[in-house]
Transposase
Amino acid sequence: MKSGKRRYRCLSCNKTFVRERKKWGTPWQDFKDWYRYVKGRVNREELGDQRKRSRQTISSRFHVFLAAVVSPELVWNVLPPRKTEEKWCYGVDGKWLHREGVFLVHRDITHKQNLWWSYVPSESYAALDNDVKHLVGLLGTNTPASAVSDWKRAIQMAVGQYFGLIPHQRCLAHVIRYSNTLLPKRSPLLATRHLRAIGKSLLNVENVEEKGQWLHLLTNWGYEYGHLLIEKTVVPSGSRRKWWYTHGSLRRGWRLLTTDTNFFFSFLTIKGLPKTNNSLEGVNRNLNGKLGDHRGLILSYQVSFLSWVMAFSRVTTDTQLKQLWVEWKRRRL
């Protein structure tokens, strides 16, 4: 048939008919199975054995969840974050989906709650501005007392605009990771290896005295090897430039460790402010693992799957799972 359906004919009475497949809804049991599947507690083969269905049937029943993205607004309305009078720290980071966009996660680091998430083309100010604007509207007066981030300019601007001049810790893990990239471990330059060691020791600073010692090491390095930072190499003829800096990576490593150093140590004066963004790094690692376990999803399904991972991170009881299912099904219909 032109419609793509198959027509059947009875050999006894010659009656023709089209087989109508039964269209199931979204039963509560399917939603519970989807929850267990997303959380990694069961796979499709195990579900097939339990439900007496094929893997293809299980996938068909799960398709409705991947096709309908669960929004953070829906989850917030059903399962709002726990509110306390305790001061809390805000963090934001992104999980890149190769080069096709980034999945942004906003998190209450103090209470380990995922507050908001979105899929955006890049970690631009426009994307962060839109997310934080929605988040502030939901938070009301319960705004964060501090923040920690990887120090991208867009994040600094968004935090300053919507949360005010709150203490903002620069993630030391990101600083050290980038300095290790710029300053190779087996560099032939002794200056590079020394500066790399100073950068790695930044994470060991625990008090004001050790902060002073670390800054002293950095100052001494500048006195001993500072001449390398201004050393230039003449460019061969035929190039537009006449010269460039001989040790470009060393200069960038030095600039990394000497720019905005006060924000390296905000955690020393603010109680409860972490020195790293490891809470969000753990979330990103979990998202990476989830996508690795379900390789082959198209981009839209990857975004939908990660949204369900975020939504289910709020669920702790069967009652909360049932509330989420009822609201999701109501909005879908």
Remarks:
- The radius of gyration is 27 Å.
